[in-house]
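retry 2 of 3: previous attempt timed out while embedding pyridoxal-5'-phosphate. Reduced batch size to 1 and resubmitted. Inputs unchanged:
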Amino acid sequence: MSEPIAPKRALEHAPVLFPRNAHGELLVGGQRLSVLAERVGQTPFYAYDRSLLKARVADLRAALPQGIELHYAMKANPMPALVQWMAGLVDGIDVASAGELQVALNAGADPHEISFAGPGKRDIELGQAVAAGVLVNVESARELSTLARASQRLGLPARVALRVNPDFELKGSGMRMSGGPKQFGIDAEALPEVLAEVGRLSGDGVSFEGFHLFAGSQNLKAEAICEAQQKSYELALRLAEAAPSPVKFLNLGGGFGIPYFPGESRLDLAPIADNLATLQQRVKADLPSAKLVIELGRYFVGEAGIYVSRIVDRKVSRGQVFLVADGGLHHHLSASGNFGQVLRKNYPASVEPQGRRETATEAASVVGPLCTPLDLLADRMDMARGEIGDLAVVYQSGAYGRSASPAGFLGHPDVVEVLV
Ligand SMILES: *Cc1c(COP(=O)(O)O)cnc(C)c1O
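retry 2 succeeded.
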């Protein structure tokens, strides 16, 4: 005989930015969630809060030394209205495809402050970048020669920065994107030769503007980020000696993480600010034409979004409560734990009772409607007792949500996104 499995109670949450009113109702953009849900007219939906986005950019600017350029890496959330909102708050937009480039240009971002990174840029995409006048973070020698041809054809400069695959890693990152053999960037040791080629191609319209280094993502250790920024700076400085013209942009990457899991807290910005102030002083002496840029996706938008689904069934299986929602991993792969996590852990989540006051709490799992055990939004978490018709909310859902999920899997309806 099998024993009922005792629910494991997850009492803790990572901290959440969304406030509640005096009645305990969740507020999104100042509006009660139940009202917003009716306004949207369907579940599931993503909601992003403009005021939280604005506050995040303002707080970061206040913390960091003046003159550090803040770029939004829009692959974290490419919703056009959100990109437009962000374009009015940050100094530039980083795009990772010609599709994203189109959204950034439509959003009114200044082409001079758009940069385009990513391996395998196709010839047509490189042509689009030159025609748009944006900076291309070049990832291979092939891209360089293609850019020179596009420049000749269009009679426009091809603005290039070289993306470097450094000889070090960003320690403690959720995802490492540099050091060792990588498909990203050009190996540091091959760079002097590529810089010589950039010099030769300057007669063919290729204009050298700087370096791009991106070491990794989702890092909550300020010391590791500082170390990566320092090493990136040292490396860029060495490489600049072989550059055909002065460095205008030095993009040190980002990697700032946000708290997702129990026990995690927000990144300490103070050491990063000190470190950047030191680097800025050195830039003034070493590379006087250069601006320091950091590019962040998740850090700007991740905590400003929620994913809302409705509970369509309540089941108890061998003592464990399952709240079956109309949303799941097909809209929100990362919250289900299947987007690069090694061990599945719960994002912050809550059950929001609708049309009644609920004082009881219970340990419950929120699952989606897909026929796979991977479709899990909350695993045995302590939440308000949920009933059919209640809303289930997953926080920290503003980054790598809809666009990073397999919407076509199992043929359920698509999700709506709103910016409030
Ligand atoms: C993905 C990516 C980013 C954004 O990473 P976050 O962890 O969301 O901040 C920035 N730059 C490059 C080159 C990227 O590939």
